[in-house]
Amino acid sequence: MDMSVKKKLGLKEKYALMTRNLGWEPSYEKREDVYPLLDYEGIKIHDWDTWEDPFRLTMDSYWKYQAEKERKLYAIIDAFNQNNGHLNVTDARYINAMKVFLSAVPALEYNAHRGFARLGRHMGGVGPQVACQMQAIDEMRHCQTQIHSISNYNRFYNGIHDWKHMNDRLWYLSVPKSFFEDACTCGPFEFIIAIGFSFEYVLTNLVFVPFVSGAAYNGDMGTMTFGFSAQSDEARHMTLGLEVIKFMLEQDPANLPIVQKWIDKWTWRGVRLLTIVAMMMDYMLPKRVMSWKEAWEIYFEENGMSLFKDLARYGIKVPDCVEQIKKEKDHLSHQAWTTFYAAAPMTNFHTWIPSDDELDWLSAKYPDTFDKYYRPRFEFFREQAEKGERFVNPNLPQLCQVCQIPMLFTEPDDPTQIAYRQSEHDGEKYHFCSDHCQHIFDNEPEKYVEAWLPVHQILQGNCFAEGDDPSAPDFDPIASVMKYWHLENGRDNGDFAGSEDEKNFAAWRGMTTSNT
Amino acid sequence: MQIDLRTVSIKPLRNTFDHLVRRFGDKPASRYQEGSYDIQADTNLQYRPSWDPEHELHDAGRTAIVMSDWYALKDPRQFYYGAYTLARARQQEAAEASFTFVESRALLDQMDAATRSRALAVLMPLRHAAWGANMNNTSMCADGYGTLITQPCMYHAMDNLGVAQYLTRLGLLLGDAATLEAGREAWLNDAAWQPLRRLVEKTLVTRDWFELFVAQNFVLDGLLYPLIYGQFVDKHLNAHGGAGVSMLTAFMSEWHDETRRWIDAVLKTAAAESAANQALLSDWTRQWRGRAAEALSPIAQQALGASAAEVLATVEQSFNDRAAKLGLTL
Amino acid sequence: MSNVFIALQTNEESRYIVEALLEDNPTAVVDEQPAMVKINVPGTLVLRRETVEEKMGRPFDLQEMQVNLITLSGHVDEDENEFRLSWND
Ligand SMILES: [Fe+2]
Ligand SMILES: [Fe+2]
């Protein structure tokens, strides 16, 4: 019989035995062959053992708590669907926000899943490997819970019937797609700064907290639940992102300039990507919790800046782009929505002109800019529409070579002037939306010349439906591109007013208040 | 305004997403289908990976196995994240109950000192082998092609970690931190464990992810689990007062049976796809089986003494039968 | 001094966690949003297991908080008895 009194192990000690103690230094194979990706980015790590685990979840608790979250989540999704919860949302315009979400986000989560799997294998120590693996499997969760929650909307509304096909092809979806493919093709250290730090820590709160709270406010319990449920994993992920950055900076002073360069780059890449969230918050939620600008001030300016203040002790500086970002917060959502409104025939969701009280809300939230620059545009759109000449931008827009967003942003100090930048590489000219995108290109031109820009591809004839003959006399290029996207003209796109969505929603909701 | 909409019956415009209609016809899709099929991007991929410029980000060319449709490799368990975690949480609850039961009844004290130390000598170094398996499955998830195969590899990796952690808890229950340390020392330096460690390190530098799937999941674990958990723990230890240990490793045996169905389905489908696949899979299986049998022999010796050779031969025989059923020629 | 924060889903369990947080962090400020409650504290936030257990009247594992957590900000330090968030500025 064992008579020795066992020393009770603390959580930290026990966790160390459950994770880092499992690894070993290989001796039959060379370490650099087992971990071949650790050196080429120039990051120096001297001692992987000094890694501190922030959350100490072993697999048994992971399964337990995650299963509890899943049980709750699917119970709510099932109830929401069985009770036709979609008819309880404030008004059917809201559903268009979900279309944008499904078209863009699960594919990002999926790439995060695969990217973190790569890191889960290739980081040089068990602690960070396990943390990355948990994130890898969590991201699969996010991808799937988003699809499962929004799937029911697809059964009743148009636009997302072929979301995965569109994600790889439709013009505006190349913005999120290229963002994540950019990150995933980076080395492991840059990837984790890009996604774990810049994206998760600095930016995802903006997507998942005020926006999801807004979904709840608009009666969408399904989205509220998957959003908050996903974000609870995100709390672990953000903490991982922060630990990694501290770890790199503590390991070697030579890491600082490399890390700083990545933070600068990915903060900007992320902010550009969030343009679409800005638009969703200010224009697509019929009932609004807070404006994009307010959310930005809380989650980026206040929270993000406390993070940078904290990292100042390592020599990390606030990225230069923050100056420009501050100036843009009054403009971003309006510039984006007016662009999408004008591109309505080419999108897989509906657009509309804000109602009078919505215009007034925007004026109140953006007192310095809205009435001066944007209300007149909406009034113009409305006049045109009333005359039966709905405004549509007749041209394919030029896209920024880096963020792939159409040239819609204005000069930081002149909101009447669209910003254009240009660089030359190998005798070719490339175009950018901003100094910061240009700068990113100039640092890595070989990477960014490989971008798949939808507009260029269309012009080069690479986006016509299979079987269509561009030399045929009756060839209609626009119709053929729509077919290539699997966009159903007249159902998926165009104005909300008069759409099948609008009619169906009204009819179905009507059935709930009458007996016929 | 909250209205009760339960009573309203409205007809949906469509059953499911178009990509699933194209695969399965126009009918409602399962959550497994919605969350798995065609989810990985395969078109218009941008930028060359800096860590593998020869390939695209997601590229079927990272293995020599060729499939006309990678979404043929269906997981018979149809695990998506929710189904997976619920299944594991149920097993975890059972395992938790076993730990409590074994501890409260002092079941482990029924073993004599020699059996106890033999149990530890065999099981503790396997924590590290399970960590190797975890790294390999994580690698398959990263490098593989198509969500239908990469997804279960990630679940499998987390299971491998779970196994390493159950073994750790078992060690702490039977002994203490020094017990784990002794197992680690054996893994690093004991002659009996070096062939296995050498083999595991070899898998860690194997770059073809499908070969890795064969080496790790089919061959190595296909021999190791029946040998260790089937023969040594459930038969040998059980007969020598070690029923407690057998309860604490029930997860491993159950898990091996469950995951085997998935591994077999993958291999069977891939082998049936073409003669070239069949030849390659057979070849890989043969090579890794030789190495694995050799590596497991000193461990079987340590575990089972005189009957080791005979038991190992039985385990190998049933492995060969299994391979033959999958259409492989060894 | 920068704020750290933690946000929880509004529900029965979180109620007790919020009560415990308010008791252990006298400078805490509660911010109620649709379906969520956010607690901001200057500098450092501490959640003590004992306080939560007192409020709930049952044993509580700090990791259980994962289930109701929405997001947080600050460096995390967690052991069996305490969950701590802080900035070092
Ligand atoms: Fe995520
Ligand atoms: Fe740009």
Question: How many angstroms separate the termini of chain C?
Answer: 7 Å
Structure summary, number of beta strands of chain C = 7
Number of helices of chain C: 2
| Main sheet: strands, sense, barrel of chain B | none
What does this structure look like?
The complex is a heterotrimer of chains A (516), B (330) and C (89). By secondary structure, chain A is mainly α. Chain A has a domain at 48-348: Ribonucleotide Reductase, subunit A (Orthogonal Bundle). Chain A contains 22 helices and 4 strands. In chain A, strands 1-2 form a two-stranded antiparallel sheet. In chain A, strands 3-4 form a two-stranded antiparallel sheet. In chain A, a hairpin with a 2-residue loop joins strand 3 and strand 4 (428-432). In chain A, helix 4 runs antiparallel to helix 8, helix 8 (188-208) runs parallel beside helix 9 and helix 9 (210-217) packs antiparallel against helix 10 (221-251). The mean pLDDT of chain A is 93. Chain B has 330 residues and is mainly α. Chain B has one domain: Ribonucleotide Reductase, subunit A (Orthogonal Bundle), CATH 1.10.620. Chain B has helices spanning 18-24, 31-36, 81-104, 113-123, 126-143, 147-174, 177-189, 194-204, 209-239, 243-248, 250-273, 275-304, 308-325. With 89 residues, chain C is of the alpha+beta class. Chain C has one domain: Monooxygenase component MmoB/DmpM (Phenol Hydroxylase P2 Protein), CATH 3.90.56. Chain C contains 2 helices and 7 strands, in the order E-H-E-E-E-H-E-E-E. Chain C has helices spanning 12-24, 49-56, and strands at residues 3-9, 29-33, 36-42, 44-48, 69-73, 75-78, 82-86. In chain C, a hairpin with a 3-residue loop joins strand 6 and strand 7. The relative contact order of chain C is 0.29. The model of chain C has no long low-confidence stretch (mean pLDDT 91). The interface between A and C is medium-sized, with 40 and 30 residues. The site of one fe (ii) ion has 9 residues of chain A, from loops. Residues 272, 400, 402-403, 405, 432-434, 437 of chain A line the site of one fe (ii) ion.
